[in-house]
From TrEMBL:
Listed name of the protein: Glutamate--tRNA ligase
Lineage: Bacteria, Pseudomonadati, Spirochaetota, Spirochaetia, Spirochaetales
Motif position, 'HIGH' region: 9-19
Organism: uncultured spirochete
Positions contributing to ATP binding: 255
Assembly and interaction partners: Monomer.
EC number: 6.1.1.17
Reactions mediated catalytically: tRNA(Glu) + L-glutamate + ATP = L-glutamyl-tRNA(Glu) + AMP + diphosphate
Length: 489
């Protein structure tokens, strides 16, 4: 039997970390077994549906770098892969259940349903739900309602007694009392659209899904689905409910913990490889002593048995560490291309500028170690593109030195640079070291104000390498500007 798994999001919002993790685990399992990974759009919630969210779905996974084998945008043998294009199928199978005595027509209107709900609340009942009124309608009343064209929904007959048993690959055998299942849930709505439960079961069966891997929050729907599979006489796919992802406060990961939508991580400057690597480790182990895995390595190592039963905690600091690791593994040319959009957005350069392309390629070895996110580049590299506002005088001053003395240090630096240039950086660094000793100062007393004059900050990428990129003329002009500034203080 060939493994077939699916990711079936509802396009009612942007893709978020929890959904991507579910998709990734399905993908890793399918590929580790030589199987197929399928995308199905569950778009029956038409009030919140948006084409914008569909496009976000496609864009997200193209950026992440793993994709489905079958889906709405690429087709496949068991389409259509969009539920709103499968309405006739759902109606047919809902009617089949009615004919088999496993479901029934319900004519209760919204007013009656609300009245029941309020009465149950007033009576402080533990379970709020349908009272099964139409399950027992006399045949004559049922036929009259249909003949009159009275609107109806189709409800599933939940067994009134006993238990429903199903197996979970991760959690083992689970028993669910039928009396605890939502009483006779709606399968087909009066507008012809299915509910999640009907569409889910029919689509998984017709698409040949062999394994359903989804978050543990969906466990309560499993007994209901098992009842439906049994009613149709179909074999239920093997279930595997994945551990939840929590924030560090122990609650389900949400916006209050920080970014959760994938496009937020993308805008913040995360690399897709870092996100995939970290998400794959949430609630799953691979090999001891390793953290960094390529997507192919994750596929080759993945086993359901490596999944944990307990919830995983999303650690933003750990993800930040992963991002830094992947940034440092990126080639200088690729990294320059990755940071370029952030530099353009910051107004530091035009989208097309070969001179700036060369500057950035030269700068990448200097800034790579300092980048936690791609979005850090404009702040770290801004001094390479333009002169900035000079910082406070205090920023320039070495310990126990005033503005006048510091201006003198800059004069010393200017003389050395004018005499020796920037072609041989180790040699000019040695000249600075010798000159500092000659005037009885520490090397840092010369270099600190020089660094601030050139980069406008006390902490920057390597100083002399930065100066070489800027060119001697620009560096001398910046030094002169800083000297005038300090002497005018």
């Amino acid at each position: 039997m060939s493994v077939r798994v699916r990711y079936a999001p509802s396009p009612t919002g942007n893709q978020h970390i929890g959904g991507v993790r579910t998709a990734l685990i399905n993908y890793l399992f399918a590929k580790s077994q030589g199987g197929s990974f399928i995308l199905r759009l569950e778009d029956t919630d038409r009030t919140r549906y948006s084409e914008e969210y569909v496009q976000n779905l496609y864009d997200t996974f193209k950026w992440l770098g793993f994709y489905w084998d079958e889906g709405p945008d690429i087709g496949g043998p068991v389409g259509p892969y969009v539920q709103s294009e499968r309405l006739d199928l759902y109606k047919k199978y809902a009617e089949d259940l009615v004919r088999m005595g496993k479901a029934y027509y319900c004519f209760c209107d919204s007013e009656r349903l609300e009245k029941i709900r309020q009465e149950q609340i007033a009576a402080k009942k533990d379970e709020i739900g349908y009272d099964r009124h139409c399950r027992y309608l006399p045949k004559e009343e049922l036929e009259r309602n249909i003949a009159e064209g009275k609107p109806y929904v189709v409800r599933l007959k939940i067994p009134l007694e006993g238990v429903t048993v199903f197996h979970d690959r991760l959690l083992g055998t689970i028993e669910w009392k039928n009396e605890d299942i939502s009483p006779d849930p709606v399968l087909l709505k009066s507008d012809g659209f299915p509910t999640y439960h009907l569409a889910n079961v029919i689509d998984d069966h017709l698409m040949g899904i062999t394994h359903v891997m989804r978050a543990q929050e969906w466990i309560p729907s499993a007994p209901l689905h098992k009842i439906m599979y049994d009613a149709f006489g179909w074999e239920m796919p093997e279930l595997c409910h994945l551990p939840m992802v929590l924030g560090q406060d122990g609650h389900k990961l949400s916006k209050r913990h920080g970014a959760t939508a994938v496009n937020e991580f993308r805008k913040a400057g995360y690399l897709p490889q870092a996100l995939i690597n970290y998400i794959a480790l949430l609630g799953c182990s691979y090999e001891d002593g390793r953290d960094i895995y390529s997507l192919d390595e994750l596929v080759s190592l993945f086993k359901i048995e490596r999944l944990n039963k307990s919830p995983a905690v999303f650690d933003y600091q750990k993800l930040e560490w992963f991002n830094g690791q992947y940034i440092r593994q990126t080639s200088d040319s690729d990294l320059a291309a990755l940071v370029r959009p952030y530099l353009v957005d910051a107004g530091l350069r035009k989208a097309q500028d070969p001179d700036m392309d060369r500057l950035e390629l030269a700068a990448m070895p200097l800034v790579k170690e300092r980048l936690k996110f791609l979005s850090d580049a404009p702040v770290i590299m801004s001094y390479l593109y333009k002169r900035l506002e000079l910082p406070s005088v205090e920023t320039f001053l070495p310990k126990k030195a005033d503005a006048k003395e510091t201006a003198g240090f800059l004069e010393e630096s200017k003389k050395l640079l004018s005499e020796y240039g920037l072609d041989d950086i180790p040699a000019v660094e040695e000249k600075f070291r010798s000159r500092a000793a000659e005037i009885g100062r520490k090397l840092g007393d010369l270099l600190m104000p020089l660094r601030v004059a050139i980069t406008y900050t006390r902490v920057s990428p390597p100083l002399f390498e930065s100066m070489k990129i800027l060119g001697l003329k620009e560096c001398i002009e910046r030094i002169d500007e800083a000297i005038r500034y300090l002497r005018g203080y």
